[in-house]
């Protein structure tokens, strides 16, 4: 299978959630929630976005794939799901003709783990299928920011650079605009039909790939529904007869019932990210999505009552002693405490639903993870906010020749093949017999597969959001059905789907809030400190930034 989703650390930061699950999501579920990226002019100096008619003329035509039919179709912004056993003999072909012309392409991409040798069997098989000699310049994903900045500042760029959205801070957006190619001539309108798997990528992901007024990114599409799930130990809940809470008050009451510190059992880990969902707070990981036009006024997330209420509720959890002490100290790993039974509830990216089951399969036969439905602050229906439609992008060097660009698109057309195809299996599992075996419809990677079939081709482009776990089809079903239930309550904020370039003077204006949130819920700061920070934020540029967003909306409208 794809790599296990690593767990978020005690004090969950947006980067730990994003980076820890990047590879698992890229290969299984299509993408991550992402931070704000930017548009502008080719020089990178123009602030703003590309919306409405200007955006539509850049978008590729959407042609849904009919190669494979999912067992659970997408609904309410969910991924599509596959729950049947895998039949290798029944795999479909989505790329009947090799489109690569035999050229050479160098791709720089983040990598988590130890990169395999460049001449390995997986890379050879993929390159043969594509018809292109791809050489991977794998860089440590944990320090990718540093390498990325240095490479983009130089004049010697590889043919393709993969940039996760959480690495798009500072001057990176300007570099994207000035150093990477306009793919519009190859993909806009009907031109994309040359690459059917790319044509099946949802239009929202392509809209989000417009940087500086040009279609520049090859996206990894993401579901619109929230990506953070409040997980619980279903095996323990069933055994103890605990009932799932349906409001913040019920959650606190249950947490007090569960917690037995002398037995080293606490109800939960840090629940800040779920609290934001329970209380309907605008997205905190993506700047444009943190703004919304409500009742005729442009509002930023930190100004809302919901934001303060969410923080106050998490403070109550800590104050009640129901949160694991290591979460307060920001040490250790939340996911490990969960699997060890030290906490029975924690929040993490949805990929951990399968990741934890796969991790524990050979260790605890009774282990069972499940996800709570998100409830509203008053115990009624929640108000959820959609995440961005793409999370990781591959960009083509502006100096690349037409032949090189076409070879890159040929490769992306293979890696974007849907689940249930020969191309998908090779991209995600490698070569049967060499990298994996299949028993009872379940493909299982061997040591060679776990060493070689990771972090590479899945980073170039991916299909429409998909969830499929042949080893745990019931988990895939639960994941998709959870997304569909939550999707029914998910709204799109004013700037959903738009790449936006904020004026440089405002870029770091909100940077201190995440640390302040963490200090506040742990009791090191007060809610009044947050209110003072909001007041300072307004004076230091927040009010002017609000006016800027208002004008941006007045001039461009929304993407919806």
TrEMBL record:
<protein>
    <submittedName>
        <fullName>Aldouronate transport system substrate-binding protein</fullName>
    </submittedName>
</protein>
<dbReference type="GO" id="GO:0030313">
    <property type="term" value="C:cell envelope"/>
</dbReference>
<keyword id="KW-0813">Transport</keyword>
<dbReference type="Pfam" id="PF13416">
    <property type="entry name" value="SBP_bac_8"/>
</dbReference>
<keyword id="KW-0732">Signal</keyword>
<comment type="similarity">
    <text>Belongs to the bacterial solute-binding protein 1 family.</text>
</comment>
<dbReference type="InterPro" id="IPR006059">
    <property type="entry name" value="SBP"/>
</dbReference>
<dbReference type="InterPro" id="IPR050490">
    <property type="entry name" value="Bact_solute-bd_prot1"/>
</dbReference>
<dbReference type="InterPro" id="IPR006311">
    <property type="entry name" value="TAT_signal"/>
</dbReference>
């Amino acid at each position: 299978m794809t790599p296990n989703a690593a767990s978020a650390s005690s004090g969950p930061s947006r980067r730990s959630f994003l980076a820890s699950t990047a590879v698992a999501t890229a290969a299984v579920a299509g993408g991550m929630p992402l931070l704000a990226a930017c548009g502008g002019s080719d020089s990178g100096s123009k602030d703003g976005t590309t919306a409405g008619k200007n955006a539509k003329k850049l978008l590729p035509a959407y042609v849904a794939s009919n190669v494979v039919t999912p067992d659970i179709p997408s609904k309410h912004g969910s991924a599509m799901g596959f729950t049947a056993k895998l039949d290798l003999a029944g795999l479909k072909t989505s790329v009947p003709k090799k489109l690569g012309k035999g050229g050479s392409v160098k791709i720089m991409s983040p990598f988590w783990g130890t990169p395999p040798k460049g001449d390995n069997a997986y890379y050879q098989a993929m390159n043969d299928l594509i018809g292109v000699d791809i050489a991977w310049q794998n860089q440590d994903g944990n320090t990718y920011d540093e390498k990325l900045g240095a490479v983009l500042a130089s004049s010697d760029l590889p043919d393709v650079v993969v940039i996760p959205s959480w690495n798009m801070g500072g001057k990176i957006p300007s570099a994207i605009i000035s150093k990477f190619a306009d793919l519009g001539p190859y993909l806009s309108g009907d031109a994309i039909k040359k690459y059917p798997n790319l044509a099946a990528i949802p239009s929202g992901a392509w809209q989000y790939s417009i940087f500086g007024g040009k279609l520049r990114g090859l996206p990894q599409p993401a579901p619109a529904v929230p990506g953070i799930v409040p997980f619980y130990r279903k095996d323990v809940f069933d055994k103890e007869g605990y009932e799932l809470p349906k409001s913040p008050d019920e959650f606190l009451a249950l947490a007090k019932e569960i917690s037995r510190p002398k037995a080293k059992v606490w109800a939960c880990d840090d629940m800040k990210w779920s609290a934001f969902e329970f209380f309907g707070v605008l997205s905190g990981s993506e700047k444009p999505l943190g703004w919304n036009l409500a009742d005729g006024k442009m509002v930023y997330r930190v100004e809302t009552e919901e934001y303060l209420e969410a923080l106050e509720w998490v403070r109550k959890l800590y104050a009640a002693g129901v949160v694991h002490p290591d979460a307060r100290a920001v040490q250790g790993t939340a996911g490990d405490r969960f699997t060890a039974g030290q906490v029975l509830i924690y929040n993490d990216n949805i990929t951990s639903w399968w990741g934890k089951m796969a991790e524990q399969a050979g260790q605890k036969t009774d282990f069972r993870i499940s996800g709570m439905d998100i409830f509203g602050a008053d115990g009624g229906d929640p108000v959820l906010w959609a995440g961005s439609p793409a999370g990781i992008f591959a960009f083509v060097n502006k100096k690349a020749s037409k032949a090189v660009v076409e070879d890159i698109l040929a490769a992306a057309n293979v890696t974007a093949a849907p689940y249930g195809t020969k191309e998908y299996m090779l991209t995600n599992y490698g070569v049967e017999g060499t990298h994996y075996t299949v028993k009872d419809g379940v493909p299982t990677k061997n040591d060679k597969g776990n060493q070689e079939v990771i972090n590479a081709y899945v980073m170039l482009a991916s299909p429409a959001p998909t969830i499929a776990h042949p080893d745990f089809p019931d988990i895939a079903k639960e994941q998709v059905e959870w997304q569909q239930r939550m999707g029914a309550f998910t709204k799109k904020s004013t700037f959903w789907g738009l790449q936006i370039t904020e004026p440089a003077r405002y870029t770091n204006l909100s940077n201190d809030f995440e640390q302040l949130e963490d200090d506040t819920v742990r009791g090191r700061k007060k809610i009044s400190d947050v209110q003072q920070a909001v007041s300072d934020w307004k004076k230091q540029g927040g009010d002017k930034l609000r006016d800027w967003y208002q004008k941006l909306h007045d001039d461009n409208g929304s993407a919806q």
